Amino acid sequence: MTDTVRLGIIGLGAQGGMYADLIAAGRVPGIALGAICDIDPAKAVSAGERFAGIPFFDDYVALLDSGTVDAIVTTVPHYLHPEMGIAAIERGIHALVEKPAGVYSKQVAELNAVAAAHPDVVFALMFNQRANPLYVRLKEIIDAGEIGEILRSNWIITTWWRPQGYYDQSDWRATWGGEGGGVLVNQAPHQLDLWQWLCGVPRSVYAKAAFGFRRDIVVEDEVTALVDYGNGATGVFVTATHDLVGTDRLEILGTAGKIVVEGSKVATVTRLSRPERDLSAEMSMADVMKLFMGQGDTSSLYTQETIEFPSAWGTQHADVLANFAAAVLDGAPLIASGAEGIRGVRLANAIHLSSWTGREVPIDFDDDEFLAELNVRIGAEGKYAQRV
């Protein structure tokens, strides 16, 4: 076993280029650039200038069969993630798949099944927000029961304004057949993953999505989803791409406290001195009136902590890449196991399916029903082959 993983980057766009730059700059221990692949001939010239001596391929299968790489990362359109992941894993090549793991649950389930059949091959997801020290700390607080059982969560995440020109720059963008959806599959996968990672996987979803609401596109640019966890707890997720100013606010209310995150940067953690129902039962109306009038002493009721971590650009991506290398070389636990990627995909699919059908959808919905509905929309576009 060597002490370096030779990584093949499939897709030298903005994301793939960033990973290549991080590795070339020595910011990712345990990884070296093994090869680069892109179907655009201009990228061959660019790669030769930026990464001299690194083999370049215009066919990802040729890269996989070249013997130049031990692992790959897929920075390509969403539909291709499972296909490329499967091709790598079946060849014994470790796979780090970009978010989302795929567009629809059926194809991601196939990827997971192949990975399960090859347990010696490392399969990971590029959920770099799981490496964000803020969210790592919040997960520790929640898992330790410091805010009690979760009762409700709300996430408003509308900080990715996209003008019409963004959608017009590529024919495949914001299409069902080319991209697989809008804000849910392009901008929000990290937040959908973090939401279920922190708060748990919901039992069902009821959603309203608007398709081409404020942009000339066919996919969703506005979403409001209500989820039910089956124990009385609920959650709301709101996202859009037409809010010029944008909001990023996450609230998680528990039986013994509350977490509020602003801008994915600063968290306020409130810890109650006793469970809220106990405080309610013990408090006299005189005490309540003092609180309402701002005269009560809250120090006996709760404490508050502000949590903030500096996070330099690219650090979290580099951390996931380094963790992936450590898993390949030393068997280190993964920050985001590939098998977990289906959770966010099923959540996005359930939101779409609920919006399309107008009904509440269980998180274990019928994969074939979703695919049939997706294919109806792909067929209506008349530009892409339907999916299987």
TrEMBL record:
Residue ranges occupied by any GFO/IDH/MocA-like oxidoreductase domain in the UniProt entry: 135-259
Domain Gfo/Idh/MocA-like oxidoreductase N-terminal per the UniProt entry, residue ranges: 6-122
TM spans (from-to): none
NAD is among the record's keywords: yes
SUPFAM superfamilies xrefs: Glyceraldehyde-3-phosphate dehydrogenase-like, C-terminal domain, NAD(P)-binding Rossmann-fold domains
Highest rank taxon of the organism: Bacteria
Keywords (A to Z) from UniProt: NAD
InterPro entries for this protein: Gfo/Idh/MocA-like_OxRdtase_N, Gfo/Idh/MocA_Oxidoreductase, GFO_IDH_MocA-like_dom, NAD(P)-bd_dom_sf
Protein name: Gfo/Idh/MocA family oxidoreductase
Naturally occurring in which organism (per UniProt): Microbacterium jejuense
